[in-house]
Write a structure and sequence with these properties.
The protein is mainly α and 309 residues long. The chain contains 12 helices and 2 strands, in the order ααααββαααααααα.
Length: 309
């Protein structure tokens, strides 16, 4: 999820607070197809992650994100936060209405205890010694995170497509003068970002459950990882996400029993996010690339020309 946040921010300039909501509705669709309708894991994953999530990203870009790119930070925050509330509610509303259709065997998302993942069901547990174990759902999540981080880094930093997407967000008008289609670059970025969110949602559902609030909390945790990466580096976002998970688990296992502060372990990512906002990105505005792209163009001399010219 952190890699997806960095991708959409670095290629569109919008920090997507609805990233977790896109993950939730995709996970909800996967759950209904797999558990409710009895589809195979592969078929449900293809439809939800590779078809539904990219289509949702393209639709949101066409309707909203494309216009938000030049609207300023406040409208972007308000719109994406509103979307993070609206999308899960819309998903649950659609499921509840479709449950009234007798030909569909959907399952109510309320109080779902077990959610299938992309790994085998039931999950296999591998013992690693000293009481440490890992299951197939966790292995699938780790493998997908590594693969996505590597592939996205190659795409954004070492392909012409990634160059066009970064050029669009740095200076949209200048990119247009270089025959780059800003709308096409924006659409591709949001298609990839939504697909990543959908994949993260399907992978995370067996670990955190199928509650919309859990996905919002996960997104905010991943935001800390993205900020530590300077909202630019996808490999650093992946590494920061892993380290945040380690710090949170170590805190829950060794610090919380001693300090006995309720919710302390859950608050760790937000404490680190505050530190990152205060110190990590303090000098981002002084980078040479940012100064170069923000130079004021010379004044126009068209007024000196005669009307016929």
């Amino acid at each position: 999820m952190a890699s997806g946040l960095v991708l959409t921010y670095s290629t569109s300039g919008i920090f997507n607070f609805s990233h977790g909501a896109i993950a939730y509705v995709t996970a909800l669709l996967f759950f209904e197809l797999n558990t409710g309708e009895g589809w195979s894991t592969l078929a449900a994953a293809i439809v939800s992650v590779l078809v539904f999530a990219p289509a949702l990203g393209y639709l949101l870009d066409k309707v909203m994100f494309r216009r938000l790119a030049t609207a300023g930070e406040m409208p972007q925050i308000v719109a994406t936060v509103g979307l993070s509330i609206a999308l899960p509610a819309l998903g649950i509303f659609v499921v509840e209405r479709l449950m009234t259709v007798q030909s569909l065997h959907l399952v109510s998302p309320d109080n779902v205890l077990t959610v299938p993942g992309l790994g085998p069901t039931p999950t296999h547990l591998f013992a690693m010694g000293n009481g440490v174990s890992i299951n197939t759902d966790q292995l699938a999540t780790l493998a997908a995170a590594i693969a996505c981080a590597v592939l996205l880094w190659l795409l954004v930093r070492h392909t012409s497509i990634g160059l066009r997407m970064r050029a669009t967000v740095d200076r949209r008008s200048l990119a247009g003068l270089r025959k780059i289609n800003p709308d096409r670059s924006s659409g591709l970025a949001w298609i990839l970002g939504a697909a990543l969110a959908g994949l993260a949602g399907v992978l995370a559902a067996p670990l955190i459950g199928l509650a919309a609030g859990n996905f919002t909390g996960l997104m905010l945790t991943c935001a800390a990882a993205a900020v530590f990466a300077g909202l630019r580096s996808i490999p650093l976002a992946f590494l920061a996400g892993v380290l945040l998970g380690v710090v949170q688990d170590v805190t829950a296992g060794y610090v919380v029993p001693k300090v006995k502060i309720p919710g302390f372990a859950d608050a760790i990512p937000f404490i680190l996010l505050l530190i990152a906002l205060l110190f990590v990105n303090k000098n981002r505005g002084n980078r040479s690339t940012r100064v170069a792209t923000e130079e004021v163009p010379p004044p126009s001399t068209d007024y000196e020309l005669p009307p016929w010219r």
